[in-house]
């Protein structure tokens, strides 16, 4: 079914796109930063896995007062535990094993007559003061065996990765890595009249969202050729989860993406979204694969990718589905220049300055147009402008 829209809102188009997206299937794989959990995971070992010392010092039996003790051995991290008998002590390192259930104390080396740092095992140790606590970490005192570590739809970032591995979780049910095809269209790209900047730009933006397998192609304005390219990516070894096109989405005689997907795709929609830049937008499904169709002008493609494509990729990867285009990280800033309103909502890339407060300013020069690709470098986020913002006003910035 094909429909053509006029003046669709950003919110409605955002919801329309997300209606096409389903998270990629799950697989059992090694936990890795950037992957997304498909099921809850629970600790396979306790943290800490055994009673151990929280300090470099000396493990002693329970003591009532400072005293001198005979030193009977060394316990570096990874060595078997040694239980000190009454009147004795064991030199012990941070993280080294303490006998299960030991009710003694770890005396920090700084509270003894033994010098800190490397040195031979002393025959005796004199304790100057007793610690206010035992300095013994108990098995499972931080994470208990079987405790849930994280739920489904959770991104494995560096902190979670360290926690999973510490809790004995080396594999999990995770959503597999998405496979995305990027197709830049336009006869001018094939002829060399214009360089393909959108394809590499979109590839970079997609790659920055997390682990993803990307195929990048270029196609002219021949409908038969575009159909062949679309078929090739969906029928490739391993298939494809999402197709992203750029260019050819308006209503011109040679707007090949619009033509082919309107006539031969499913759930296709092409029309104008109430925004600038990037009013012409479109989507479809090709042989079961969602297709997000971005405009061809570079700034329009860039802001549309941030507004629509990166949230789509979050949903595709199995992360929580956003509720709307503003459901994303945001910061409050002070306007360092004028952000002028226009007849339509405007997506304005901006530069940020952090100097105690956050200042957001439009790039220098004339108001950015959809072809002003040279104004993009140095921008770090965008402002969604529906009314004019004067210098000194507060505004919401959505960082890239």
Question: What does the model show?
Answer:
- Helix content is 18%, strand content 30%.
- It is built from seven helices and 23 strands.
- A seven-stranded mixed β-sheet has the order 1-16-17-18-15-13-14, sandwiched between helices. The chain has a five-stranded mixed β-sheet with strand order 8-5-7-6-9, with no helix packed on it.
- Helix 4 packs parallel to helix 7 (298-317) and helix 5 packs across helix 6.
- The longest helix is centred in the C-terminal third of the chain and has 20 residues, at 298-317.
Topology readout:
Elements: E1 2-8, H1 10-18, E2 26-30, E3 41-42, E4 52-53, E5 57-60, E6 68-75, E7 88-92, E8 105-108, E9 124-126, E10 136-137, E11 148-150, H2 158-166, E12 171-175, E13 179-185, H3 187-191, H4 198-207, E14 213-219, H5 223-234, E15 242-246, H6 256-264, E16 266-273, E17 280-286, E18 289-294, H7 298-317, E19 331-335, E20 346-354, E21 358-361, E22 381-385, E23 394-399
Parallel strand pairs: 1-16, 6-7, 13-14, 13-15, 15-18, 19-21
Antiparallel strand pairs: 2-12, 3-11, 4-10, 5-7, 5-8, 6-9, 16-17, 17-18, 19-23, 20-21, 20-22, 22-23
Helix pairs in contact: 4-7, 5-6
Which labels suit this protein?
5-stranded mixed sheet; elongated; alpha/beta; 7-stranded mixed sheet
How far do the termini sit from each other? 34 Å
Flag low-confidence runs: none
Give the strand order of the largest sheet, numbering strands 1, 2, ... along the chain.
Answer: 1-16-17-18-15-13-14
Structural class: alpha/beta
How many strands appear in the DSSP assignment? Answer: 23
Average pLDDT metric? 96
Main beta-sheet strand count, sense and barrel state = 7 strands, mixed
Order of helices and strands: EHEEEEEEEEEEHEEHHEHEHEEEHEEEEE
The total count of helices amounts to: 7
């Amino acid at each position: 079914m094909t429909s053509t829209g006029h003046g669709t809102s950003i919110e409605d188009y955002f919801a329309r796109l997300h209606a096409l997206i389903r998270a990629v299937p799950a697989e059992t794989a090694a936990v890795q930063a950037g992957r997304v959990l498909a099921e809850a995971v629970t600790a396979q070992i306790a943290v800490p896995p055994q009673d151990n010392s929280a300090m470099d010092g000396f493990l002693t039996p329970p003591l009532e007062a400072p005293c001198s003790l005979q030193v009977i051995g060394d316990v570096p991290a990874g060595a078997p535990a040694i239980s000190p008998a009454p009147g004795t002590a064991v030199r012990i390192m941070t993280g080294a094993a303490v006998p299960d259930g030991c009710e003694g104390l770890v005396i920090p080396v700084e509270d003894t007559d033994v010098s800190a740092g490397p040195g031979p095992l002393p025959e005796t140790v004199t304790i100057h003061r007793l610690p206010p606590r035992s300095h013994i970490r108990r098995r499972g005192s931080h994470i208990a065996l079987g405790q849930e570590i994280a739920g489904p739809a959770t991104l494995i970032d560096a902190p979670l990765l360290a926690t999973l591995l510490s809790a004995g979780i080396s594999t999990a049910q995770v959503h597999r890595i998405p496979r995305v095809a990027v197709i830049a269209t336009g006869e001018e790209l094939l002829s060399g009249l214009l360089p393909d900047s959108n394809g590499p730009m979109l590839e970079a933006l997609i790659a920055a969202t997390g682990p993803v397998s990307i195929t990048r192609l270029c196609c002219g304005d021949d409908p038969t050729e575009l159909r062949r390219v679309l078929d090739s990516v969906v029928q490739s070894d391993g298939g494809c989860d999402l197709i992203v096109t750029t260019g050819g989405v308006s209503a011109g005689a040679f707007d090949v993406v619009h033509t082919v997907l309107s006539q031969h795709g499913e759930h296709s929609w092409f029309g104008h979204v109430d925004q600038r830049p990037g009013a012409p937008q479109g989507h479809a499904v090709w042989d079961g694969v969602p297709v997000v169709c971005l405009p061809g002008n570079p700034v329009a493609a860039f802001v549309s990718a941030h507004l629509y494509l990166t949230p789509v990729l979050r949903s595709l990867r199995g992360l929580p589905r956003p509720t709307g285009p503003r459901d994303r990280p945001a910061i409050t800033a002070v306007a360092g220049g004028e952000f002028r309103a226009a007849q339509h909502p405007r997506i304005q890339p901006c530069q940020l300055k952090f100097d105690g407060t956050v200042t957001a300013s439009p790039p220098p020069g004339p108001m950015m147009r959809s072809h002003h690709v040279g104004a993009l470098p140095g921008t770090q986020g965008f402002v969604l402008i529906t009314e004019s913002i004067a210098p000194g006003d507060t505004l919401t910035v959505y960082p890239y």
